[in-house]
């Protein structure tokens, strides 16, 4: 079931109605039934694999708790993590193993039916819920949370339908409290209004902006041998906007739906394209994934004996100040390779979303002393320099998106090479773009709205509230706030890319 569909809206409405008519103590059973039904609507394999992950991590959490022996706890944790990561890699990334796939098939004698299953029975949202459930097992082992003894309470955490396909990621300690607290949630017209506005804004981002700009993106990347010069940057910039509108639009629907049920999800985006540096960009883009990788991979890795030893040796060789950064740099390389692989398992992701961003961050660290002096000369506190920083960061992100969106590394390399070709706008290239004047006007106006909203809610300090726009709208008279919803709803109905024969259901990150 697509999150941007009439069926999903009807499903949410029915769930919310039954939910609020049910006594508080029984509401979690309504949520669990709705979540399992939603998982089943995504396909039998989606339901089967999330149940498998839930059972294995639940048992792993019980055996990793402080009441067990240290040997059992370590073994249970390692087996649970390796098992679930192995299943994720085998199922989710089987079809992108590339040159290794056939060799694996020969070694293990995989039948044609097995290969077909592995290629097409890919569960929705598997990359998200696998990491989230692994995080629970690690929390039990590290004694950050007590092992859950009620399987059905844990199963609700694993399958909670608003975030099932694309996140945001949550820790069990945080979300379980919110799910339990939902029994006290009260229905109100304010809650309905705020949820409706947020869901409509998500539909607007996805159907009006992302799916329309996809026409340009698909044309340029699909005909990269024709488009060169400035077209390459146009395609990369349009894909960056498409990806942002698509994924953040999905999050708006998720957070709006969850808010309707009285359960607050963490924000996943905070005006990322207004960032001044790549490091800041990743603090504002897919925030919960960054938090998961920091808490469960990067920091634990730096605390291992291997990295401590690397640090000791580096301090002796390069001095204390420089030497202590060496293990951090090694950790960053491993972290960003993992980020790239998580996005799809192909080398194009490892380069475009992983190693390239790792290079940006490490290079920024190395040249920071020079940058500090330069910022003083250029008056970095003034607006022109900040605009330059934002444009530079967006440009660097777009360079990575050339790899991300290209079919493979070879195509990406050809697109990089074609940047230096002459830019020519003729009837052939314009025809291939498949976007008429009307679509272009709608796209530019809707993009202007998106930029205005992001500028309004942008704050340089992360701790400030990213829901400023919704708060501002909610503070207006009721007629004004409902008028905003109506404008968004009409815009989606009139300008949205949907209808018979049009598939608007697949969010980009839901396919990860």
Task: Put the structure in a nutshell.
The protein is 72% helix and 0% strand. The chain has 512 residues and is mainly alpha-helical.
The H/E string reads HHHHHHHHHHHHHHHHHHHHHHHH
Strand content of the residues, in percent? under 5%
| Contiguous helical run count | 24
Task: State Rg.
Answer: 24 Å
The count of strands amounts to 0
Average residue-wise pLDDT? 87
Q: Based on helices, strands and strand pairing, what is the structural class?
A: mainly alpha
Helix content: over 70%
Shape: globular
State the distance separating the first and last CA atoms: 16 Å
| Poorly predicted runs of 5 or more residues | 95-120
Q: Sketch the major β-sheet.
A: none
List the helices and strands and how they pair.
Layout: H1 6-21, H2 27-41, H3 44-63, H4 70-92, H5 99-108, H6 112-120, H7 126-141, H8 151-159, H9 172-181, H10 189-222, H11 230-260, H12 278-284, H13 287-302, H14 305-318, H15 320-323, H16 326-342, H17 347-366, H18 368-377, H19 383-405, H20 409-418, H21 427-433, H22 437-457, H23 468-474, H24 478-495
Helix pairs in contact: 1-2, 2-3, 2-8, 3-4, 3-7, 3-8, 4-7, 8-9, 10-11, 10-22, 10-24, 11-19, 13-16, 14-16, 16-17, 17-19
Structural commentary:
The protein has 512 residues and is mainly α. 72% of the residues lie in helices and 0% in strands. It contains 24 helices and no strands. The chain has helices at residues 6-21, 27-41, 44-63, 70-92, 99-108, 112-120, 126-141, 151-159, 172-181, 189-222, 230-260, 278-284, 287-302, 305-318, 320-323, 326-342, 347-366, 368-377, 383-405, 409-418, 427-433, 437-457, 468-474, 478-495. Helix 2 crosses helix 8 (151-159) and helix 11 (230-260) crosses helix 19 (383-405). The longest helix has 34 residues, at 189-222. The two termini are 16 Å apart. Residues 95-120 have low confidence and may be disordered.
